Design the sequence.
């Protein structure tokens, strides 16, 4: 591992996924690691169109170096027909050089999502987002049932990762259980990452 930051990489259309990302980053930093928030540009069928290098607001766009040099990754997207949104999928599909070099192998990873409806594909989206991370050799981190909010939630929250029922317009705020699970996921990823970094340092010494 080349650095001690956790990359929280997400795509957000209406802002709900971005709110989750910030809560996850809070959890990461509460556990003692830096959280680096990054996003990806929208994609378009018009090949001549391109996004500016720096977004007008919010997180910066993720670079290959951001991903290559992270100690851990938390990946987030709204649900699109039970899968991650096209902009994030497009970005992940372009990481073959990191796959070839094994740059992400052995690093912790987790996922999170938002949906418009209660049964809008939260779990299938989380599971599908894990697949490319497994191909990269990453170590998946979920949410254990020792997190009480996982059993009590009436909105989002799964053992596969944090989730949020945002509503059709994305305006439903994160409730206390969803927020707690976002922070818990960030803390868990950071804790596992610190343990791995400490183990690696011990082996090198």
Sequence:
């Amino acid at each position: 591992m080349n650095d001690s930051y956790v990359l929280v990489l997400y795509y957000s259309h209406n802002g709900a996924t971005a709110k989750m990302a910030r809560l996850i980053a809070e959890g990461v930093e509460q556990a003692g690691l830096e959280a680096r928030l990054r996003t990806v540009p929208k994609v378009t069928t018009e090949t001549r169109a391109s996004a500016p290098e720096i977004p007008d607001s919010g997180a910066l766009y993720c670079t290959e170096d951001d991903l290559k040099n992270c100690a851990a990754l938390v990946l987030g997207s709204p649900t699109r027909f039970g899968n991650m949104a096209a902009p994030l999928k497009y970005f992940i599909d372009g990481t073959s050089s990191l796959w070839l070099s094994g740059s992400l192998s052995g690093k912790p990873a987790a996922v999170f999502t938002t949906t418009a409806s209660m049964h809008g594909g939260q779990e299938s989206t989380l599971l599908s987002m894990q697949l490319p991370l497994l191909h990269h050799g990453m170590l998946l981190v979920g949410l254990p049932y020792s997190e009480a909010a996982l059993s009590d939630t009436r909105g989002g929250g799964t053992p596969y990762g944090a989730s949020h029922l945002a509503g059709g317009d994305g305006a439903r705020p994160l409730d206390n259980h969803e927020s707690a699970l976002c922070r818990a996921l960030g803390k868990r990823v950071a804790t596992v990452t610190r343990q791995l970094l400490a183990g690696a340092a011990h082996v090198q010494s």
